[in-house]
Request: fold
Amino acid sequence: MSVVCDKGAIPTSEQMVELIRESQMRSREYGICSEERNTAQVKLSPEGLKERIHSNNTLYDVVVSHIKEFYLLLSPEDFMIALVDRDGYILHLDGSERIQAIFAERNCAPGYRWQEKDVGTSAISLCLRLQAPFQLNDTDHYCRRGHGFTSSAAPIFGHDKALEGVLVISGSTSLTHPHTLSMITSAARSIEEQMRLLRRNQELSVYTGFLDNVLEAAGTGLLTFDKEFRIWKVNRKGEEILGQEKLAGKQLSAATGLQLDLDDIARNPGEWKGRECYFKHNGRGIHFFYSAQPVFSRQNALLGAVLVFEEFGNIKKLANKISGDRAFFTFEHLIGQSEKFRDAVDMARRASGSSSTVLLLGETGTGKELFAQAVHNASKRCQQPFIPINCGAIPNELLESELFGYVDGAFTGALKGGRPGKFELANGGTVLLDEIGDMPHDMQVKLLRVLQTGEVQPVGSGSLLRINVRIIASTHVNLAEAVAQNRFRRDLFYRLNILPINIPPLRERGAGDIELLAAYFIERNRPGCSLSREVLDELHGYSWPGNVRELENTIQRALHLCEDDQLLPEHLDLPVDTARHIAPVSGTLQEIERTAIVSTLGKTDWNMVQSAKQLGISRATLYRKVKEYKLVKN
Ligand SMILES: Nc1ncnc2c1ncn2[C@@H]1O[C@H](COP(=O)(O)OP(=O)(O)OP(=O)(O)O)[C@@H](O)[C@H]1O
Reply:
């Protein structure tokens, strides 16, 4: 039974004797001639050798760079040092010229293969086979040409203790020393350590290169910092947002204005998302949103954190995109030729050239929002946001935070990190304050202050934000009357009433405009369809309490019912016109209105969209009326 030795461990001298004996026997069985030099020994071509060196480059580089250190202990005149790869090929051999020549005569030179089946018993072949250090002296070598020499070989292991190569030292037998084997074995261990470090560094630089690319590819600002809050890396986008360069090594607070609690970030990472930061650097205000994420080592030690941040302006653009900040209509979309209507359009055109506050007055559905969009689109602010706010539709308690935003923790239910208000989102552009006549009294005071100072104060914040917005206000309410009745502040009315524009109701615009608008809505919905004379007569004869919106709805409904290409009176289904066919109803105007609303809501089972359509008023107006008349379902 053959002797077993431990991988990597120096065998005992008894084991070595036995293992050498077994190898000698195998060598004889291979039929290797021990007397002659083997001229047929496997040898790599110069290119083959180059390739092998290349594929073992880490091992090769580390060993070759260590050779000088070996020769501090051994003389190159007496000893050769060689590196053999895991397949037994000599990759490198060092020593004086004389010693290299002596070994070359014995086929011990770069390119030769030194497996047991090539050369029989040798320190290299035994070390390769048993993956343990070996020392052979004189006649221990199977081939006669090895007699007179002492050789010590040690295995070099890589990842997972896989054999990478063999390090070997050889010289005259007269220099035999048992310590040489220990020395070469510990040299092999230090080579393994060096290789591990080198590979780790290579991996790290690949990883760092990869990380750099990922950092740069990200569309947001990215910054990493260590436990001492020293910045490690920032991507270009991050430097842009912070308006600074060469931030690596600087303190986080100096560069970003952030004083963070790293332990809390590690404990509650979910709490560190979507936060806001505003700070001044070199006199410039820097405003961004950020999230912080802790970074741990493999051993779970807290190393630092990474910040993902985005400029406030971009968040604003995104929010605008989602909430629809674009004005679509232009003056070209405003259909109508009547004198009253053209006067209103001319006034609006002139208003778009200035940045004064515009007050749009008109019944519901006359096109106030369309006018506001057209004014914005014809103004210098057309590339900036257009933000409509329906002051009548937002509950009073929410109006202030909707308009001016709020800061983190301003009230229960507030979003983490706060939220910008509509004024801030509209910065640089236009705000349409729709249904301004329905604005609660205390909000009127706050709005007046904003108009006077050009600053807004987010709810819960101690500081003021400067904003630059153009205000367009609109209402169906007779504001002068509301002022007289103390329902609307006089000072605010004067502030808003700078450029008042009266948009006429449809019934005052004449048959020409009704025809034009009807044709326009047909063209938009069913091009090619026409109107019969009778239909036109009916349209002219109706009073249009819901104005253009009602006309638009009527045409759409009629087109739905019409299967041919001509609209006929039976498709129209206009409501009984209380204004023209005076029905025998009694009561005040308000009572009649209330009855109409109650009956329509009853018919539609309180479907607000359908009821508003049938009544020819906007949904917001219907909600307002429901509130006003204190109507409740059932
Ligand atoms: N001159 C016009 N040309 C084309 N379409 C118009 C015109 N005026 C109004 N409309 C259409 O009528 C509808 C109502 O317009 P808009 O919402 O601007 O009215 P409004 O006066 O703001 O109403 P409310 O006071 O109820 O909010 C819109 O669908 C719009 O397309």
Notes: Residues 333-336, 362, 364-370, 434, 476, 548-549, 552, 618, 621 surround adenosine-5'-triphosphate (CB under 6 Å). Residues 579-584 have pLDDT under 50 and may be disordered. DSSP finds 25 helices and 21 strands in the chain. The longest strand covers residues 284-296.
